Each structure stands twice: as structure tokens, then as C-alpha cells.
Amino acid sequence: MLARVWSSSIVGIDAVKIGVEVDVSGGLPGILVLGLPDTAVQESKERVKATLKNTNFAFPMKKIVINLTPADIRKEGPCFDLPISIGILAASEQVSAQLLGDYLFLGEVSLDGTLLPVPGILPIAATAQNMGIAGLVVPYDNAQEAAVVEGLAVYAFKNLQNVADFLNNPGRYKPVQLEDAVETQHIASSHPDLSDVKGQAHARRALEIAAAGGHNLIFVGPPGSGKTMLARRLPGILPPLLFSEALEVTRIHSVAGLLKNRGSLVRDRPFRSPHHSASGPSLVGGGSFPRPGEISLAHQGILFLKNTTM
Q1: Nearest one of 282, 300, 177, 180 to 238, comparing CA atoms
Q2: Is this structure's pTM higher than 0.90?
Q3: Domains of the chain, with CATH numbers?
């Protein structure tokens, strides 16, 4: 039997819709994963096999072919554990396939069935809304992050058994409510205050002009003259992030796996200070699997570059 589960993957800082097709048919028992999977996705077949056995589901002793579409996009990370597990259960008729076309499924699955959080949920949730997807099924620890996006039903579960029960009995569960998310929570700024600086009148004036006009700024002076100390206080005199700006910054930090408080937007303007020996790729991002660099991570904030040769 064939089952199709929808999931998503991150390309750069944007999300793309990924189809997880699972075919369970006669033949020698085994699992074959197709569609440009990386090592983590290839290992999913062993994790899923052990998980289903440990959670009292019947693992079909048949030939299982898993196809990840579109086939020309590289699939990476453990976020496909949950859709692969659900696909196998649906193809073997252990869960209902009625809701599989309406939701995106994401999450890493441990061997005891516990769902573990994955990075990049916020951009996936934002993109899912534009795709016409009814909602997301995610690990419990990702619920608040996904709930920031309005108009999207988010169902969060702690283990695989709950997800299976949701598919068989959807009326028992309610989506995470927006008011339960701490989206509007404002945390006091962690940046040092410019008012603590005594003296440095010209440098303080330069900071104020740069903040008011969005200008670049260069400080020249010997070590210990206060250049870094002053620069770290620049975000504190910038205006607060608007909701749309905070959403952009949070999406970037979510993809980079830097969100410390899942479920709260990044409210402080970023301050990035890479080492003076940082490489070009670490600054601009990229790589085999594109990731944001320091320039992207400083979006809507401050990028402080040091030059030790001057």
C-alpha cells in the first residue's frame, strides 16, 4: 500500500514542501530511501524501525520504499523521522491516512518514541501558511515557536503514540492556542546601556548619529581605548524591533539553531562580533548545506568587525 505524508525542509532561510512517499509491498524485507537523502536521513530507517518496535507498533516485514520528493533537492537532518514513521504506519494501515494531506509533519524520533525538537520550525510554519496547509504536527518543544504564525493550526505531541492517536481520533485534540505562546513577551534588553559610559563625548555623539541615520561607523584607536565597549552599547539606543522585523530575525536564528527561548521572538537587535580571523564563508554563509553567516545573523542589528592591522 502507498501512503504520502507531507513534510518540509530548509533551503537557505526558506522552507520548501517535501513529500514523503512510503510504499509497503511484497518482497524481501528491507528499507530503501530515495530522493537525495543525507546520512542523517539514511539513518532514519534504522531509528524508525527500532522506534516502532519499542512503541508496540507492528513493523511490516516487507519491502519498504521511501521516496522523498522533489528528488532534486538535498534532504538533510533528522526532521524526517516523524513523517517516515507515520508513512510506514499509514501504509501498513495502523493509522488513518485521512488527515495526512492536510498537515506537515516534522520531528526527530528517539528510540522510545519521544519526539525531539528540530531547528527551523518558524520559517517552515510561515511558509506552510502560504502553501495552503491546514496546520503542523510538531514535537512539543517546538509548539510555541510554530504558534507565533497566526492562522495556522499547530498540534504538538510528546511522543509517537500521541501522533498516531491524533490521526485515528482527531476530535480528542485541540491545536495550540496563540495566547498560549509567549509571542508578545518582551524580555529586558541584554545589551549594556550607553548611559553607563562616562566621558567619550565625541564617540557617544558618533554612536547617536549612526543610530539615528542608520550609518556605518568606524572607531580608530589603540587597544583598551573603549572601541568594543562603545560598539556593544549601540543596539541599546536603536529603536525596538517591529513585529515584522522580529519575525525576520527569529526566522534566521531559527534556521541557524540559535534560538535559546523557543516560542519567543528575538526582541533585541542582534549584535554579532566575529573574530578578526573569521573566514569569508563564516561571514557570508553558504556551504554544502547553506547556513546563515555572520552578515545574515546581524540582520536588523549590528555587525562589529575588528581590524587588528590598523
Answers
A1: 300
A2: no
A3: 2-180 (3.30.230.10), 194-303 (3.40.50.300)
